[in-house]
Amino acid sequence: MNRAYISLIRGLREKKNRLETGFFMAEGKKIVKEMLFSHFSLEMMFLLENSDFLKNDIDKIPRDKISIIDEKYLSRISLLKTPDTVLAIFKIPSDKEISIGNNELILALDGINNPSNLGAIIRVCDWFGIKKILCSENTVDVYNPKVIQSSMASIIRVDVHYTNLLEFLSDKKEDVFISSLDGENIYNAKLPSSGILIMGNESVGVSKDLSRLSNNRVSIPKFGMKKIDSLNVAVATGILLSEFRRKNN
């Protein structure tokens, strides 16, 4: 592996380099295996010598897409403190047109800037059968390596779109629900089987402009100490989506 390739791979931790090259990286046996047999297109896979990864399926991967490396080189390109035995580079797919189906529950994210939170939210959506996430333009990039890692390959089954949420949602007929500390107790609220739930940044919440789109505000009741003023956004998303699904199951 030459220095140019090492530099390219390490550069994929930065959004500008991902946009310029059209590539993103994924690490770990579970994540890479699922992505290899998905709609994502493999550019190159790096395997440790004597790795048993895909032992029975390795012939399904074109030989020119596999590079055997040693631990020294893997440690230079990996972003993990303890590198796994496999790292892969995939092509970023073309943007899809955003469409909302009948009776579909959709999640919208406003200003979520922590990559681990976005990855966890994608995983939560996968669990609850949410197929589509709409992100504000200032939400962290879904192809950030930490997002990919924390999503645990759920990005395969959940479409993530970036758009101007205010413009996109302003003329939509679907019910819009805002996550807000002053909202109605989620356990008492009447919740439809379809609609759009908007989650905001942990520190500032949903923006004022987006909040004006709907009077449907929901909150999670607090049973602990009053000093705690917010929940992690991924945890809160899981609780709210669970209640939407439970009441319509």
From TrEMBL:
Domain MRM3-like substrate binding: 6-88
CDD domains documented for this protein: SpoU-like_RNA-MTase
Span of domain tRNA/rRNA methyltransferase SpoU type: 105-241
Gene Ontology molecular-function annotations: RNA binding; RNA methyltransferase activity
Keywords of this entry: Methyltransferase, Transferase
GO biological process terms on file: methylation; RNA processing
Pfam families (UniProt xref): MRM3-like_sub_bind, SpoU_methylase
Claim: Transmembrane helix is one of the keywords in the record: no
Regions that span the bilayer: none
Descriptive protein name: RNA methyltransferase, TrmH family
Superkingdom of this protein's organism: Bacteria
Sequence similarity: Belongs to the class IV-like SAM-binding methyltransferase superfamily. RNA methyltransferase TrmH family.
Species in which this protein is naturally found: Ichthyobacterium seriolicida
